[in-house]
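Q: Got a minute? One more chain.
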Amino acid sequence: MSGRLEHIRIATDRGGGGTNVRLPWSSRDVLLEQLRRTEGAEGITKAFEDVGASRPVTLTIEQKALLLRVLEDWALTSSFDRMPAGLFGLRNALNDDLHDAGQRQDRP
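A: Always. Here it is, folded:
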């Protein structure tokens, strides 16, 4: 293995027991570029940058809601099938988490 991670994990709360979504490191890098252009996403960016190899990225409900919005807005211009690997799965896991937490608000 090279000097950096091949994947990053993002913690989700689905089913109460918690699971992790895996993203390739290259997808993480592209996602961070997108987040750096998003107002209010500094905490999410920091969470992704600060995580090590042994633990997943953990986000608050509010951060998950913002990240979901970023992914959905991104898909409007690119479509999920053209986005980096793993982002559609992350979107689905975030949507499930927010639905389970009663935080998902349907957008017009």
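A: Residues 61-78 form the longest helix (18 residues).
Q: Perfect, thanks.
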